[in-house]
């Protein structure tokens, strides 16, 4: 899923996949976000703004992007419920705002909480709310982005599989020069990931989101980064599958292997329960019963 795109191009790509004109994954998107600039000043305004997603975009989901104070945010989620849209939101470096949004019933929360440690009372609120927390550790708040940690340890310019799917110019741009270097002690992602793990242990739901930084490999980096906070491999995989499906509102169709669900599978050469880095050994991908070569 793409939460919040500046343009609506992704909706056309999704249509082309659905009609079989191009091969691709199941594509979900919020489309453009719902912003303060939408000037929502009443419950009816919120309904009018969200109709573009139900009547025109057909996204099934929206991203509420710091649209206003709590009353405005409540108008948006009330309109979303009425129009059967699954609302996620922008974290926005505001933990108090995040707590109220979880209490008010938002389905998802994107980006890391800006504080650590998070204590039991708040963990219980977040867990009981059912909100899926996607910390996007590759671009976390409060420290160097975790993606730089992985760029320093993985030469993407020599990754043959990545090179088959990514223009060489992009790999060179991202892989040859980085803006800064940090000593390992300066990275805060293990601390932030540990808070996500505490939420999982409290019965909450955490999702995997790589922020589109590096397509293909970034999602694996995000899983490994979640594991850096002590999350067990099985819980990392749950975050990458069933919790993510729940965040999309499609847990009845995808996200786990069960009778009646769509036949979506990822087949690997090595067991990620033994070592979480084995997620990057994908041999085959099955979508809706059709098997594709992972290479």
Short account of what is shown:
This protein has 295 residues and is α/β, with parallel strands linked by helices. Helix content is 39%, strand content 10%.
Helix-strand blueprint:
Layout: H1 9-18, H2 43-57, E1 61-64, H3 70-82, E2 86-89, H4 95-104, E3 108-110, H5 120-129, E4 132-134, H6 146-151, H7 160-165, H8 168-175, H9 189-201, E5 205-206, H10 218-227, H11 233-240, H12 242-248, E6 265-268, E7 282-287, E8 290-293
Parallel strand pairs: 1-2, 3-4, 4-5
Antiparallel strand pairs: 6-7, 7-8
- Percent strand equals 5-15%
Give the helix proportion (percent range): 25-40%
Structural class: alpha/beta
Rg, alpha carbons: 19 Å
Element order, helices and strands? HHEHEHEHEHHHHEHHHEEE
Shape: globular
Poorly predicted runs are none
Using brief descriptors, characterize the structure shown.
single chain; 295 residues; alpha/beta; three-stranded parallel beta sheet; three-stranded antiparallel beta sheet; globular
Description:
- This protein has 295 residues and is of the alpha/beta class.
- The protein contains twelve helices and eight strands.
- A three-stranded parallel β-sheet has the order 3-4-5, sandwiched between helices.
- Helix 3 links the parallel strand 1 and strand 2 (86-89).
- It starts with 8 loop residues before the first helix and ends with a strand.
């Amino acid at each position: 899923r793409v939460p919040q795109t500046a343009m609506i191009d992704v909706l056309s790509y999704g249509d082309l996949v659905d009609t079989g004109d191009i091969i691709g994954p199941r594509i979900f998107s919020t489309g453009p976000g719902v912003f303060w600039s939408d000037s929502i000043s009443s419950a009816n305004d919120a309904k009018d703004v969200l109709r573009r997603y139900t009547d025109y975009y057909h996204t099934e989901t929206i991203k509420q992007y710091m649209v206003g104070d709590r009353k405005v945010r409540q108008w948006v989620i009330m309109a979303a419920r009425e129009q059967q849209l699954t609302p996620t939101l922008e974290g926005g470096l505001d933990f108090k705002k995040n707590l109220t949004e979880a209490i008010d019933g938002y389905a998802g929360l994107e980006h890391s909480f800006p504080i650590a440690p998070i204590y039991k009372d708040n963990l219980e609120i977040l867990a009981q709310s059912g909100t899926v927390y996607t910390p996007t550790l590759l671009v976390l708040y409060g420290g160097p982005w975790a993606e730089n940690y992985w760029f320093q340890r993985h030469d993407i310019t020599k990754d043959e599989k990545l090179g088959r799917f990514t223009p060489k110019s992009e790999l060179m741009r991202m892989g040859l020069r980085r803006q800064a270097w940090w000593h390992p002690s300066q990275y805060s992602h293990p601390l932030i990931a540990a808070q996500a793990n505490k939420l999982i242990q409290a019965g909450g739901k955490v999702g995997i989101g790589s922020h589109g930084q590096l397509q293909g490999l970034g999602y694996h980096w995000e899983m490994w980064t979640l594991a850096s906070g002590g999350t067990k491999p099985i819980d990392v995989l749950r975050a990458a599958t069933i919790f993510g499906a729940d965040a999309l509102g499609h847990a009845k169709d995808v996200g786990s292997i069960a009778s009646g669900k769509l036949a979506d599978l990822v087949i690997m050469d090595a067991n990620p329960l033994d070592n979480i880095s084995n997620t990057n050994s994908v041999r085959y991908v099955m979508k809706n019963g059709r098997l594709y070569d992972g290479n």
